Amino acid sequence: MPQYGDYQNAIYLAGLSGVVPEWPVDHATLRARAAAHWPASVRDYVQGGCGDEATQDANAAAFGHWGLTPRMMVDTARRDLSTSLFGRALPSPLFMAPIGVNGICTDDGHGDLAAARAAAATGVPLCASTLANDPLEDVRAACGDTPALFQLYTPRDPDVAASLVARAEAAGYAAIVVTLDTWVTGWRPRDLNTGNFPQLRGHVLANYFTDPAFRALLPQPPEQDAQAAIMTWAATFGRVLTWADLPWLRSLTSLPIVLKGICHPDDARRAIDAGADGIYVSNHGGRQANGGIAAIDLLPDIAAVVAGRVPVLFDSGIRSGTDVIKAVALGADLVGVGRPYCYGLALGGADGCAHVLKCLLAEADLLMAVDGWPTLAAVREAGARRTDR
Ligand SMILES: Cc1cc2nc3c(=O)[nH]c(=O)nc-3n(C[C@H](O)[C@H](O)[C@H](O)COP(=O)(O)O)c2cc1C
Ligand SMILES: O=C(O)C(=O)c1ccccc1
Questions:
Q1: Taking the model in full, what pTM does it have?
Q2: What confidence tens digit (pLDDT) does each residue in 250-262 have?
Q3: Predicted ipTM?
Q4: Is 199 near ligand 2, meaning CB less than 6 Å away?
């Protein structure tokens, strides 16, 4: 059972010898350092969001109005953060949310493989995006023994969709995460003002370019005419899914299917009734629709409806280990982090990414130690209280 808080001791001990951490341990400094490292186009794409970014900001700020209540005289000398997903043991509830431009987060263009290596090093699963700069088979292999999830942006062409899912199953992914909120991209002023749209430069299309069903749509292979291949991809991206499509998705795979982007309890109820194997509460980090309620504020009502029948995954606004614990307290089984791990990739590749994950886990673990919760079940039982009403 890893004692994640030991990462703090390692930093202090190194400090005794005059060694300071190579990368920051807090989100604000990490974010600023990554912003200074990246070209403006990458910075704006990753850090930006929809409209005036009110929902994006609210996602993080809303953790502030949920409070935890410590309990004393409990033996928390050892903490157990372990859990499981679809029968696979996991050392903690943390996972890496799917990020379509991981590739461009690192200087070498292989951020997807770097994130996968961080998964292998830490045991924190990666949910690999359809839109990756490295083929899904290579990404899965680089995850080593750590389970991985495959996020599907469902192409309009059903053969391409079926092929991507079949490849993910053959490659050994543990589940298919179908994103529901991004068949079209939201209104993103930072990118619009610069005409910056990374996928149209082909950075994220390795899974398509290597796909036999996609290649069959092209008059010439992508190696000969990349621009035409990118335009064909743009024409097939973004199937509008409805509940009527779920049986078809189900028919493509025997893997568990998780629906990402659920924000309403009635949608969670309907998803379970229709056979979804997992509910993923997320508003896409405020990148898709502005004007929404902070994701963490949506979680308790959805968790109540799900009532343990299927796992509840959560992301949007996680910036610290304390946020991870609050999400568990409010009903998440697994907690996804998005932008922060991109910052780690930028500053230190796989090692920088692993550092960010270890910091989140160390803070979560130390919070459990101090506040009297030896297990995630104890965190869940303690819950969190809204402090602003
Ligand atoms: C640069 C970037 C690219 C993303 N690409 C995808 C993607 O390919 N598929 C997907 O389902 N979600 C994608 N997301 C959304 C994340 O999976 C996640 O929902 C969000 O980042 C969580 O919010 P956070 O960044 O505040 O932690 C992306 C987010 C960012 C920041
Ligand atoms: O930017 C995003 O949020 C996202 O999901 C995406 C969409 C297309 C290409 C790359 C990422």
A1: 0.99
A2: 999 999 999 999 9
A3: 0.99
A4: yes
